[in-house]
Amino acid sequence: MNILNNMVIQVWFFKKKSVLVLSFFLLFFTYKLQATDPFLPYLTERAPLIIRELGESVQDGVKTREMVFLSRVYEDIQGIDSVLTYAIVACPVKEGKYPGLLLLHGGGGCAEAEKARRWAALGYVVLSLDEPGVANSEKTPHSKGRWKNVEYGENRFIALPDITHSTIFDAVLSSLQGLYLLREQPDVIRDKIGITGISWGGYLTTMVSGLANSMIAASFSVYGCGFYDKGTVFMKMLLNMQPEERLVWLNYLDAGRRMREVKTPFFIAAATNDNWFYPPAVMETLNAAQGYTNHLFAANANHQIPLPGGTGENQKTGWLKMEQTFFDYYLKDMGDGLPVITDIKHEIIKKKDTVFLKIRFKVKSSIPVAKAHINFSNRDQDWTKRKWNEIPASSKRKNRFEAFIPLEEKTDWFITISDTRPVTVSSIIISYL
User: Fold this and answer.
1) How many CA atoms lie less than 13 Å away from 56 in the CB half-sphere?
2) Could you say which of 3.40.640.10, 3.40.50.880, 3.40.50.2300, 3.40.50.1820 is the CATH number of the domain covering 40-332?
3) Which of 155, 259, 338, 402 is disulfide-compatible with 288, CB 3.0–4.6 A?
């Protein structure tokens, strides 16, 4: 019996020791990967090397220059290789100094040549590029790298054998290098540079704004945000990763973790029913910033902003018409800033046996408000499937409004106002019970 007990005790200690060894290995593994920020060697503020010039052209007062730059050199089992990135720079032909704008395309896209020309015609120096791991490889004949050897979308959510093997690492790095290249253009005003992007480009807008905030005067993200683990379609991919690998990915490649470095104006245009980026992740991203933030939520919309100043407007330069208002204000000191919803108060009242939530708020703006309303929904439904109801808000005094919504348990609500330019902004989404 003693012999058997001794054997059991030895086996128990062996298993216990194995668990401890394994735990120590995982902790050491994670610490080793986390010890140094992989972007640190690239925070040089130096423009990348131009590998190949692809020509210049002039049309309608805009000059464009196409090129391929070296983003980085890396080594793998096949040997030494490089990431080469195509970029286009557009600027006014007329001599002078102009604010700069970095344009970042969405998933499956490529360098935004036509948008770059439209912005340049308005008096901006603009750079747009192919984004590795985000771009469609069939649309990017001049760009190359490890990302072109895999199917579109593969190897984004990996951190092994290290984080640089994620195709998103090269998307961020090439965008960062593009910013450095934009700053070196002879006609750009170096302290008046903005950045804007859509979807995955919105994510990249957030990442680059955090990594190089001292070089960014203002940022405008369309849909894209950070905190992928708080409410995005990408939570599924993250959950498929091993815990220690997921931790490394979130630490270095989740844009929300970079927002604590953002101290300059930052705007997110979001859709409440977006299939990719859900409101909780958007709000947490904004909350993490250290500077001025603003945003809008388009109710019952998915990857669209069907609101005044949004995606449905004609003759727009960017993805949203109000992008121009935003950047003209922060980069050119032209016009008025965006409105801000303040002094939000709510209370429960009862009218004829019906319970309402009375909502009062103020709009800080020098531009007249054209429309103000409350959106509300039941919290029991998933974000992508919710039905948002709209109640108009009435004006009580100058820029002060109130509205009454029928109150139910688990109600979420938010305020949206549009001014006469048109520009639209929203409050955060507030939960009752």
Assistant:
1) 9
2) 3.40.50.1820
3) 259
- Block mean pLDDT (10 aa), the chain, length 433: 36 37 41 72 97 98 98 91 98 98 98 98 98 96 95 96 97 98 98 98 98 98 98 96 97 98 98 98 98 98 98 95 98 98 95 90 97 96 96 93 92 97 98 85
Q: Which residues are within 8 A (CB) of 407 and not within 5 positions of it... i.e. 6 or more apart?
A: 348, 355, 356, 357, 432
Query: What phi and psi, each to the nearest 5 degrees, are found at residue 132?
Result: -55, 140
Cα–Cα distance for residue pair 247/401, rounded to 1 Å: 44
**Cβ atoms within 10 A of the Cβ of 361, count?**
21
In CATH terms, the fold of domain 340-432 is Immunoglobulin-like (2.60.40)
Q: What residues does each domain of the chain span?
A: 40-332, 340-432
CA distance 431 to 433: 6
